[in-house]
Amino acid sequence: MRSRILVRGGSAVAALTLCTSALVLVGNQASAAAGCSVDYQTNQWDTGFTANVTVNNLGDAISNGWTLEWDFSGNQQITNHWNSTITQSGRHVTAKNPDWAKGLATGGSHSLGFQASYSGTNDKPTSFKLNGTACTGGPVQTTTSTSTSTTTTSTSTTTTTTTQDPGNPDGHVANPYVGAAGYLNPDYVAQVDALATSTGGTLGTAMRKVAQNSTAVWMDRIGAITAGRGLRGHLDEALRQQAAAGRPVVFQVVVYDLPNRDCAALASNGELQVSQNGLARYKAEYVDPIAAILGDPKYRDLRIVAIIEPDSLPNLITNAAKPKCAEAKSSGAYVQGVQYALNKLSAIPNVYNYLDIAHSGWLGWDSNLVPAVQLYTDVVRGTTKGFTSVDGFVSNTANYTPVDEPNLPDPTQTVGGQPLKSAKFYQWNPYFDEADFGAELHRRFVAAGFPSSIGMLIDTSRNGWGGANRPTGATGSTVDEYVNSGRIDRRLHRGNWCNQTGAGIGARPQAAPRPNFDAYVWIKPPGESDGIATKTDGPNEEGKQHDPMCDPAFRGDEQANGGNLTGAMPGAPHAGVWFPAQFKSLVENAYPAL
Ligand code: BGC
């Protein structure tokens, strides 16, 4: 459950009991404007919650440290916190600035976060104080004295005092997204802004909003490490953004260059081949240089999220009959490549590894899910750091499966005597959406031995399914009628994956959106193609080629998409290339609307 309130104090200031010190004012008095507002957001479950607290300074600039105080209304007990030093005494909480954020400019803000347990109700605090001044939402004139003061000391007991997770002396936090800003890739922003400008009007304004959201940077070939801005250039820019934001920046990088890449399709085939020494090259020419850059101490205050090899291990589960996948499997190239990447990257304390785990429409059946959990468990257990080499899993990377199917919440619900999951569209797959799929994966991974601290991510960049065709309810007397009228996933088949017509931008990137989920993220930058629509003579210099699933006129095959049309947009360029028509359509069909 997610809730959000904006506290603009005033009403219950009297409820605050300041217990650290009292200042008695005598003598030389000076005027200063003080003022603040606080935005307090929580993500809550039965017995606990995380909170993001943003304090906005509306008064004079603060240069030498600050303290934010509030009282809980119940038995909330903070267990973990970040981006401030928190002490709790009974209901009273004092959050002090971290060393790296002593200043708060006029109009500036700082976000801090914590995790807490509670029982009963979890009402929000009703008032806050910044450096002793109630946060009433506007500047107030206060009088202070610098000459004579007497101080009384309270008998408060304090709890934790560090700004890191307890037990993580290297600074590796439980959830890298909490309390952090997302990296804005200037190259992507420029592309979006240019299209927004040439489009103009309401649509142009909506387009521009996309650029305010963090997208991942794909290392989709060896050359990408140095081409253009290059990985170092992005990290330097992330450092700059971090300094400007005054809080940690999450930089998301996609590790995507295994030999025989995209082995069951053609659109995103890569440069390395198993048969041509690809695994050794992957290690030496790709993973090693990336790890060397990410491990540069200069970048150690960034939070670097590595998305590990989309679609690779899932292809070993379901597509081992295809020759390139069979080779990737029998040679051990995928498994060893992923383990090598995890070993190198997990040695860097500020890197957070998330393994790609396909999506519910791919692995949802137990016949796929059981062996998948087994394979992932074996792969991760076989790394140097074992289960701690990963921080979690990411689903729906570059796919279109919704987070929720709001009109079809229960796959076992019956219509005409049949369960909804028996409908043609779901083919007895019991997971209709990524929220249910991710929650179940978390449960199974923990049962298999992973620590319960692992977190799930969902790529929500293109799974919004808004616009005029979004159903608001379901009706019908057969399961097929009911499902087809109610599903927001408007694809012709869940196996369709290339440049889907009618898809929209989904949930905005967001930290800790539900229990066991670390974030909603945008891994696929909206508007970058999934694959070229028309036939090409052969692979381009990066290995990309035409896959019939990207041809709007192609009727797929039984295994790929039940023999339906592909639903792909016409006119698409190669995978990864900017595709303005798709971007426009994604913006028009965004949900929530932009
Ligand atoms: C492509 C990559 C590209 C990525 C992000 C993938 O489908 O193969 O080259 O970087 O999408 O757009």
Automatic annotation (TrEMBL):
Amino-acid positions noted as binding substrate in the UniProt annotation, renumbered to this chain: W218, D220, H359, W362, N399, W497, K524, E528
Keyword Hydrolase in record: yes
Compositional bias per record (Low complexity), positions renumbered to this chain: 142-163
Domain CBM2: 29-138
Enzyme class (EC, first level): hydrolase
Residues of the active site: D262, D311 (proton donor), D530 (proton acceptor)
Region (Disordered), start-end ranges: 134-172
Signal peptide segment: 1-32
Protein name (Swiss-Prot/TrEMBL): Glucanase
Natural source organism: Saccharothrix variisporea
